[in-house]
Amino acid sequence: MNLGNFSLSLAVKDIAASRAFYEALGFTAFHDQAHHGWLIMKNGDTVIGLFQGMFEKNMLCFNPGWDNNGQNVDPFTDVRELQRQLKARGITPVNEVDETTTGPGHFIVVDPDGNPVLVDQHR
After folding, report:
1. For residues 10 and 13, what is the distance between their CA atoms, to the nearest angstrom?
2. Tens of pLDDT, residues 65-88
C-alpha cells in the first residue's frame, strides 16, 4: 500500500514561535500559509506541517499523489481506494472520505494508541 508523501503535522499554539524554533533547527518554509494558520517546512527530506487552531493533536500525515516537495507524482493510489483497502483489513476510519466523489479528499484512522493518521489527497 503506497500512502504517498509522509509528514508530521503538529498542532501548535503560536505559529510564529514554532516557525522560529524549527527554523533554528534548520527547517525552511516551502508552503507558507501562516496568515491562514498553517505552513509546511522542510529540512532535507524531512517534512513537517505547523497548524495553529486546526486540530487538537499531532498527526501522522500521508499525501497520496505528492512527493516530499509537494509535487504531483503519477501513478498514485486514490484516497478512496486506500480507504477501501483499509476497511477490508478491518481498520475503520473515524472520519471518512465520500467514496462517490473524485479529486481532493481525506480520511482519518486512529492507531491502537490513539494517534491519529491523516490520509489527505490534494488533487
Report:
1. 10
2. 999 888 999 999 999 999 999 999
